[in-house]
Amino acid sequence: MRPVAQDHNVEDAERQRLQAQYAEIATLAGGLAHEIRNPLSTISLNLELLVEEVETSDQPRDRRMLKKLLKVQDECRHLNEILNAFLQFARAGQLHLEESDLNAIVREFIDFYRPTAAERGIEISPHLSSDLPGVRLDASLMRQVLQNLAQNALQAMPSGGLLELQTFARDGRVVLEIIDTGHGMDEKTRARLFQVFFSTRAGGSGLGLPTVRKIVEAHHGTITCESESGKGTRFSISLPAS
Q: In this predicted model, which residue has the larger pLDDT, 190 or 34?
C-alpha cells in the first residue's frame, strides 16, 4: 500500500499539470476571442449606423434593406454569444479554490435567478441540508454551473413548472441536485448531452453542458443525468467534502 503522503503528491502533480494545460488553452482562447471580437465589433457598429439610416424611410427598397440588416445584426449577436460560451468552456478548468459553503452559493444564486424564473412561470423550490460539510470550490465557476443548468431547465419548461435544488451529504461527498418538471429527453439525446457543440435547441452553442461537466470534473467531482421524455430531468453533481 502506498503512503497517503505519496498519493497526495501524485494528486498535486496531476492537478498542477492539468492547471498548466488549462491555462495554456485559456490563453489561446483569449487571443482568439480578441482577434474575432475586434472585427465583430466593427461590423456591429457599422450595422447600427446603417439601420439608423434606413429605419425611418418608407421606401420599399429601404424596408427590404432594413429587414436584411436586422437579420445580420441577429447573426452578429449570435456569434458573440457563441464566443462568450467558448471562452467560458476554455477557462472552465482554471480554479481558484477556497473553503466554501455550497448552500450559501446556492441560496445566493436562487435570490438572483428567482425573478427570471417567475417571469417564465417557474417556481424555485430549495431543499438544502442543514448540516452540509464544507467543500473547496471556485465560487464563481460554481455559480456558472448553476446558471447553465438552470437555463437548461427553463428551456425545458416553456409553459412553466417546478425547479428544485437539493443538497445533502452522502458517503463523504457533497451532492447537489437540480430537478425540473420539463419535457425531459430520450435516451439518444441524453447520451450526447455533454458532447461539445451538441445542441437540441436552434441557435444553441452546444457548450453549456460541456462547460458544466468540465468545471465539475476540475473540482474532482462527477455529474450524472437522469431523464425521460415527458417526465423531467435530474442532474446530480457529487463533490468531495473538505
A: 190
User: Any idea what DSSP says for residue 133?
Assistant: P
Q: What are phi and psi of 180, to 5 degrees?
A: -125, 165
Taking the CA atoms of the chain, what radius of gyration do you get in angstroms?
22
What's the gap between Cα 125 and its chain centre? 20
Comparing C-alpha atoms, which of 137, 150, 146 is closest to residue 101?
137
Rounded mean pLDDT, 46-50: 91
Give CA separation, 17 vs 24, 64, 216, in Å.
11, 55, 17
Q: How far apart are CA 242 and CA 240, in angstroms?
A: 6
CA dihedral defined by 190, 102, 207, 40, rounded to 10 degrees? 160
Block residue for cell numbers 429527453: 185
Strand 135-137 relative to strand 161-170: parallel, antiparallel, unpaired? unpaired
Q: How far is CA 227 from the centre of its chain?
A: 19
CA angle 224, 210, 180 (to 5 degrees): 50
Over 90: is that where the pLDDT of 240 sits? yes
Domains of the chain: 4-90 (1.10.287), 98-240 (3.30.565.10)
- Under DSSP, is residue 194 helix (H, G, I), strand (E, B) or coil? coil
β-partners of residue 238 are 175, 222
For residues 98-111, average pLDDT: 95
Report yes or no on whether pTM surpasses 0.70. no
